[in-house]
Fold this sequence. Notes:
Shape: globular
CATH topology: Maf protein
CATH class: Alpha Beta
CATH architecture: Alpha-Beta Complex
Strand content: 15-25%
Structural class: alpha+beta
Number of helices: 7
Number of strands: 8
Largest sheet: 8 strands, mixed
Helix content: 25-40%
Distance between the termini: 18 Å
Order of helices and strands: EHEHHEEHEEEHEHH
Amino acid sequence: MAAEVPMLVLASASATRGRLLAAAGLCFEVLPAAVDEDEIKRSLHAEGAPVRDAAAALAAAKAGRVARRRPGALVIGADQILECGGVWYDKPPDLLHARAQLMALRGREHRLATAVCVMRDDTLLWQHGEAPQLTMRPFSDAFLEAYMAASGADVLRSVGAYLLEGPGVQLFSRIVGDYFAILGLPLLPLLEFLRGHGVVPR
């Protein structure tokens, strides 16, 4: 008798992460985790923790919260923090903050500390982190206004106020790192882990 494939759960409300998993052919449940992300980030930042450690801690907090609600399931947690010049950026709450954030990043290089983990019950089975580096070109004010008008509230879904899979790619002069990690989920390492647990055929 074949072993039962464990249930797969995405502990994230991110539509982009959900689309990436679905496009890869995975069947999963979406169950967002209610954790105080701002408090966790503030505490770790105050302690001088590296941004990659903060992203990993947030991913594990999300997965852990949901794993307690889905015993036996493989629960995916993920998080991403943008860091530029020692400043950590969150998703902008509104279009005014999004515009200000893009102006602060204009002509500069920043990192996207991206973490993903998988938990089952109280056990952290696997974790992975990447930090793509992105350089925004010194775009004009006119371009910024046109970009904001064309993108609208969609920019609020991204920690960087840009959507790389759309017009946001025009903001950049150089990108180094995994494309899927930039979108918020290092997909290839995750798929390799899932293959080892029978979720994805080898």
